[in-house]
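Mods, move this if it's the wrong board.
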Amino acid sequence: MNYNDEYYYTIIRKNIKKIRKSKNLTQQQLADLTDLSREYICDIENESRCKHFTIAILGRLSKALEIPITDFFNDQN
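Not the wrong board. Structure tokens:
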């Protein structure tokens, strides 16, 4: 099955939010750990804002959350 870009962005967004919450981090705390703004983190997590992000941003997020970058791609519907 072929998936479009938005499919992957949606999975990644959901995983970022789920993992952040599982580590009891606020958006501000994650922003501080990644040197991003809280608004940017909010935009990434919010599907309706359709914020696209780079692999470099995912790298920063995975490092801050102390997880392998591949965890963001897990589709656990």
